[in-house]
Design brief:
single chain; 129 residues; Cyclophilin; 8-stranded antiparallel β-barrel; 11 strands
Length: 129
């Protein structure tokens, strides 16, 4: 699909780290339609980010929604939502965990390496473009 053609199922987002580093991503409705709709309703968000051993980033949300189309395997750059912690997760490496399930909601398109440098106290912002 051409970059100049917009789609109603792919919602472009801008992720900003510490008001300096910018990354582009997409929320994809058909992956988890109800969850993506609830996340879009919360945007823009700005939260402290938790980096778990450079495996994934966790961004807390205040959502009350259950799991939708549960998955336990993710690729680097995938974005998912966990109802158990009410958080968005951005995976920095391949993730395979048979005991924890997430709702896949999108992915990061650019500059993944910048997210790997996050540390305690960093602030991440997510907004719809």
């Amino acid at each position: 699909m051409s970059d100049s053609i917009s789609s109603v199922s792919r919602i472009p987002i801008l992720i900003t780290l510490n008001k300096r580093e910018k990354l582009e991503g997409e929320l994809i409705r058909h992956l988890s339609p109800l969850t993506v709709r609830k996340i879009l309703y919360c945007l823009p968000i700005s939260q402290l980010v938790n980096n778990f051993y450079n495996k994934y980033l966790q961004i807390k949300l205040d959502l009350n929604i259950g799991i939708e189309k549960p998955q336990s395997k993710f690729k680097r750059g995938d974005i998912a939502y966990s109802p158990s912690s009410s958080s968005i997760y951005i995976f920095l490496t391949e993730y395979t965990q048979s005991q924890q399930y997430f709702s896949h909601v999108g992915y990061i398109k650019t500059n993944m390496g910048k997210l790997e440098k996050t540390k305690a106290g960093d602030i991440i912002s997510i907004q719809k473009i």
